[in-house]
Amino acid sequence: NNLFKNIIDAVKKDIKQLAVLIDPDKMRIENVSSFIAKVNQSIATHIFVGGSEVDDGLTETLVIEIKKYTALPIILFPGDVIQITDKADGILFLSLISGRNPDYLIGKQVEAVSELAKTNLEIIPTGYVLIENGKETAVQRVSETKPIKRSDIQIITDTAKAGELLGMKLIYLEAGSGATHPIEPHIISEVKQLLNIPLIVGGGIRSKAEIESAYKAGADLVVIGTAFEEEESFFNELKNLT
Length: 242
Ligand code: 1GP
Description:
Elements: H1 3-12, E1 17-22, H2 32-40, E2 46-49, H3 58-69, E3 74-76, E4 90-96, H4 102-116, E5 122-130, H5 138-143, H6 153-165, E6 170-174, H7 185-194, E7 199-202, H8 208-217, E8 221-224, H9 226-230, H10 232-237
Parallel strand pairs: 1-2, 1-8, 2-3, 3-4, 4-5, 5-6, 6-7, 7-8
The structure holds SN-glycerol-1-phosphate.
């Protein structure tokens, strides 16, 4: 597996990356083939699989089904230890560094070690930074942590940098799935200026213009979940015309 290396190579060449997030709790197995056909026609470079609340076993079944229809790399973006499956290619090994709940900073990660030992997943340590977006999102509820206020720029940038200094390989700025306001471009650009590692941005991004503005501000990889699930027209905007 060369997932992280490929992300770095793309960043060096200034090639912007896009992940489609599929939540096992929301995606019906019978819809996977038609959904993935659309993803394959789009500019997406990765598929992320995960959610805040997913029943045991669902993730593995879903990943097996997705794999039948695409060669795109599948990276787990787990809300919990039970979402680990060997069928994916890699995993964002997340620590919710914006929060102060020890379970999501280190507890779940310790629990995950024996599960990960049974897999060949490429493990990518990722600092996960949740930022307030106008409403309570599932991450906030499930992790019982407070997001950082949008106005606390210094805390946001210091948190992201602390993640890098701890050795994390990616920073993920998250507004939360279905966020009212995506992460603002000025926040993205302030964080990007400080970081020497790739920056992922997601939550509430619903249009090509919003994707482009995140890229322009410094996002290396943008994550889209809800908009792909809900809006057919959005797919058409993201068609790969090259
Ligand atoms: C959520 O960042 C992702 O963890 C994607 O969010 O569903 O709002 O696109 P959306």
